[in-house]
Please model this.
Amino acid sequence: MAVAVEKLITSDILKPGRYLGNERLAVHKAWDTTAIRWVLTYPEVYEVGASNLGHIILYNILNAQPRQLCDRAYLPGQDLAAKLRETNTPLFAVESKRSLTEFDILGFSLSYELGATNILEMLDLAGIPLTWRERQGGKGEFTNLQSPFPLIFAGGQTATSNPEPYADFFDFFALGDGEELLPEIGLVLEEGKQAGLSREHLLLGLAQIPGVYVPQFYDMAEDGSVHPRRPDVPKRILRRVATPIPAYSIGLVPYVETVHDRLTIEIRRGCTRGCRFCQPGMLTRPARDVEPDKVVEAIEQGMRATGYNEFSLLSLSCSDYLSLPAVGMEIKNRLKNENISLTLPSQRVDRFDENIANILGGTRQGGLTFAPEAGTQRMRDIVNKGLTNEELLRGVKTAWEQGWDKIKLYFMIGLPGETDADVLGIAETVSWLQRECRGKGRKPLNFNLTISNFTPKPHTPFQWHSVSTTEFKRKQNLLRQEFRRIKGVKVNFTDVRISAMEDFVGRGDRSLGKVVRRAWELGAGMDSWYENLDQAFSAWGDAIAQAGLDWKYRQVENGEWNLFHIQEQKRSKDAENTQFLTPNSCTDAINRVSPNSLDTPLPWDHIDTGIDKKWLKEDLQRALEAAIVPDCSFEGCSHCGVCGTDFGHNVVIKPPAIPKFTGEFVPNTIKSQRLRVWFGKQGNMALVSHLDLIRLFDRVVRRAGLPIAFTGGFHPMPRISLATALALGATSSGEIADFELTVPVAVDSFREKLVREMPTDIPIYNVAQIDLKTPAATQLLETAEYLITVAALEETTPIQWQEWIDTIKAKDALWYEHTTKSGKSQLINLRDRLFELELVENYNCIAESISVIRYLGSYRQDGFLLRPEQILFMLGIVASGEFQLLHIHRNRLILRV
Model:
């Protein structure tokens, strides 16, 4: 049964448009005609979750399955969460508005070590017990699938890497790519539901699917390793691999501005560069290119279907997609008249050239990000970055020559074998790049640096390493002092406390479940957001201490799980800058720690990612020798163990020829026609803000293919002008917008195309052609007519309401103290601004009397206007009572003739 959320999703909460579930391309399937009902539950706020590509892809794939339905839910803001708890209303799915407990299965994305507390928050808000044991009655007994609670599972990078710290909370984990895995899970659920299987047999059936890990069928040994507790489940669980399908990336165009407010298309999945610190690179092998023509087709179709003015090509290493210049140029040529821009994530600086610069340039040149990772050649070789100083300079200099004055660089400190000379090498490298990129008539090259603390990750060669927080702080201070002498550089450091906590949880075992739960109870949540960092760290620290595991956390905090550890010796300042850790000293250090330390069982050894643990140990040894392993996508096989029947092989597609560049977008500023549109804002769209409405109109015009004119200048904007803003939550049947077109369009045709692309809650009432020289509607505003719904906080008769209105109309002056934007107070006569006032309707409810009042008041843009709240002020004066404004409806805007 649908939750009555209209009483909760109101204009008094932050961004109520988050919870409407009415986005363009949202899929609404009939509840009663589906057998299995999913909810993809993203444990972050809507702006993060709704723009996540994996979330969109799996949502589209699940809704493409027959007899299956997929809805969505997100972590609510604190204001809505408080309302849910106050009213005892369970968390709901945004499209159907049904409680999460009504669905068969909830799938959470777990892509961050400390993100599980947000998952527990969502489960608690939904009224679902937090652990699989509690959901089964506390005794581990299995119930039928038709139990009060859905199956709860998690997927994502962290779930695939090491699910053990979170094993208490999930019925199962989906490991690896989900495009093929989730539909298989759906089929097993459908068959099990039809057959009336017990929950135990259903989970046992799921455990037979490659990629499904059911932790309750496994036990943890004393050393933290995990083994089956029954013979009919696999000893090791295989990570799933799927081929990316770009067409499923097209979907969900939110009305609220999101973190990645653009179309995103995946061009390559997996990375074989072999950076030894990089978990995504190890967990996504083999590398698989997408056919260039499919990428181009998806982008062109996606831009037409969504109306976005920006798209992004996504890969762990976009520059390793050899077809990138050809694909980018083809799209740029096809869409060059539509003011479309391309953005790319962090790129390989050694592959950045003029071809890539050309596809990124244009009227809205985006930012540029490179990740050298280390400041010296020796450290880049240790981490197998495969980047030389010459390649770094060539890439940065190419960007500078192509017009970029600011570049973002990522570095890491705390890497294995790192010395102070390597740390200071970061500052030296940045200074050197600045010196090499100077020229007459050009601004100096500026850098934004993010310097993160290395956090060891499971399934990487550096999974056996750690660094103390004290050492991190010391190295950060070294760099702070060094960068004080360098101008044009902004440096951001990662908080060392959270890095240690990520390490502790990320490499933890099943015993950490009680820590995760207690951290949530103590207020940990939204841990990746800066403003909650102190609260989160305190909660996690207290939870660890209460669980009696603070000794274990101190090992991580002190860097004691560090196979590169060597005896600290007193050294002078000069010696500090020249200290060098030799491969032999590293090897000796490992032998001193424990001859079998690399063979110690790890909590994630039962997860088969395809990479041989023996190869990881060998690659660690190669790191000690600063030996490079070539990229196996383009050179010889590195024998990591991935390629084969289970995981497939690298797919590298020969790039097509780069099309000839047909020129940059030149904004068409010709104004051949101006059309004035009268429209409404009703229903759910009343909860969409004015800025979001402006973005919506831009996308509607693009989808409709209307020849909109653009402004000139560096950032051309479409010539769409809304007469005025409408308060959030207010409805209207009288809004006005002006459109300027480059070529004349028949009025009826324009209206038809606009109506076809507009949400139904934004009705188009009228379209009229006006003279090009006519002032914009915003300049002609004279008056506005409103219907306001007002409540008197005590019972009142219609006669009394009429008397109050008559009293207001009879007065010559009603003075109101107004505070200007500059903070000055001034008295204004509200009666001068009121032209008509009448009682339309009155009815009494329990303990209050409600009236609908129509008024016509001044609405000039010079500030001479009458707001609905000021009508309540006048009522309060004449009635000597209190009133509450329940609803605002704007009937019409009246323009000066």
In short: The two ends are 52 Å apart (CA to CA).
